């Protein structure tokens, strides 16, 4: 799995100072399983995780501007995220 706790991401599991990007992927309000990629400022691949059974994902990343790309059956969607050092960015992706 992606490291998210069953029932949803729990930012309290992050260590102090860690920068976290997490969220969920849905279609018509229902969770979607697939993969989520993290791309850096120049759109280069950095990481990929599978979504959980509830469509959730989590990345630990450096501060900066990132693209979160959902890759699910029949759809792809991108979201830009700006996160500060030690911050938490919540990303909801509807495909």
UniProtKB/TrEMBL annotation:
One of its GO terms (molecular function) is alpha-amylase activity. GO terms for biological process: carbohydrate metabolic process. Transmembrane segments: none annotated. InterPro entries: Carb-bd-like_fold, DUF1416, Ig-like_fold. This is alpha-amylase. Its EC number is 3.2.1.1. Pfam families: DUF1416. SUPFAM superfamilies: Starch-binding domain-like. It is an enzyme of class 3 (hydrolase). Residues 1-28 are annotated as: Disordered. The lineage of its organism: Bacteria, Bacillati, Actinomycetota, Actinomycetes, Streptosporangiales. It catalyses: Endohydrolysis of (1->4)-alpha-D-glucosidic linkages in polysaccharides containing three or more (1->4)-alpha-linked D-glucose units.
């Amino acid at each position: 799995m992606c490291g998210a706790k069953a029932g949803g991401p729990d930012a309290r599991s992050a260590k102090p100072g860690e920068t976290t990007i997490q969220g969920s992927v849905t279609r018509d309000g229902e969770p979607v399983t697939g993969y989520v990629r993290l791309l850096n400022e120049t759109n280069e691949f950095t990481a990929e995780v599978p979504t959980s059974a509830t469509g959730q994902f989590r990345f630990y990343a450096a501060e900066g501007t990132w693209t979160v790309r959902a890759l699910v059956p029949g759809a792809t969607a991108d979201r830009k995220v700006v996160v500060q050092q030690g911050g938490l960015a919540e990303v909801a992706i509807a495909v």
